[in-house]
TrEMBL record:
UniProt keyword Transmembrane helix present: yes
Official protein name in the record: Putative hydroxymethylpyrimidine transport system permease protein
Listed transmembrane segments: 57-82, 94-116, 122-141, 179-198, 218-239
Keywords: Cell membrane, Membrane, Transmembrane, Transmembrane helix, Transport
Record's keyword annotation contains Cell membrane: yes
GO BP of this protein: transmembrane transport
Cellular location(s): Cell membrane
Cellular component terms per the entry's GO annotation: plasma membrane
UniProt source species: Halalkalibacter nanhaiisediminis
Amino acid sequence: MKQVRSLFYPSLLLFGLLALWQMSATVANQPFLFPSPLAVAKRMIELHEALVSAHLPATLGIILTGLLISLILGVSMAVIMYKIPIAEKAFYPVLIASQTIPIIALAPLFVLWFGYGMTSKVVVTVLITFFPITVSTFDGFRTTKKEYIDLMKTMGTSRWHLFAKVEVPSALPSFFSGLKVAVTLSVIGAAIGEWLGAQAGLGYFSRRMMTQFDGAGVFAPIVWLSLIGIVLFLLVRIIESHFLKWRQKK
């Protein structure tokens, strides 16, 4: 019952926005430029087979591969910077600087370097998702209370036991916060990569529909991209609630 109540207001807001969109599209009466939600839904049904069978798997492969690489690199980098102060001084400014460069400006270069295959899109996705995972996990490690560390040391615990039982649990909330940001950004990264150059994928399909002046066709893969982001975010929430049961409100 509580979960139903929590969905009431977001559903009401979404319904209101869709109703406003439908009325605005009806008044504008330009379906090729500003399609209505009903027109987009109809087009999604018409393009369902092409989107789901060919383009959706291609985009999912890019997103999941990019996230996996970002998880491995991001967590490893966070641990290295936390354990080795010199590494923090060397890598942290570079991480910050890497986010000041517009990824969309580098994406065409990746297409030139790695071609129109999957690699260039994965690189774009990794560059976008790597930063929040690294920084959030690193900040989580630094929030470990010194009192807990001193207590474990006085008990004669090993470094590995201290890391696994104190420092990792302290970093988990921040890690999941960064991961929730990363999964939503991964969709954007995959779409940008496909938009600039690809042979398949939802971003590629949206661009192809734009060249045909099919407004509803442009929105159809965008809706699928949004759904992917929502599903991934909810999956992370479920995993987070499993590992951080102690944070759940009674």
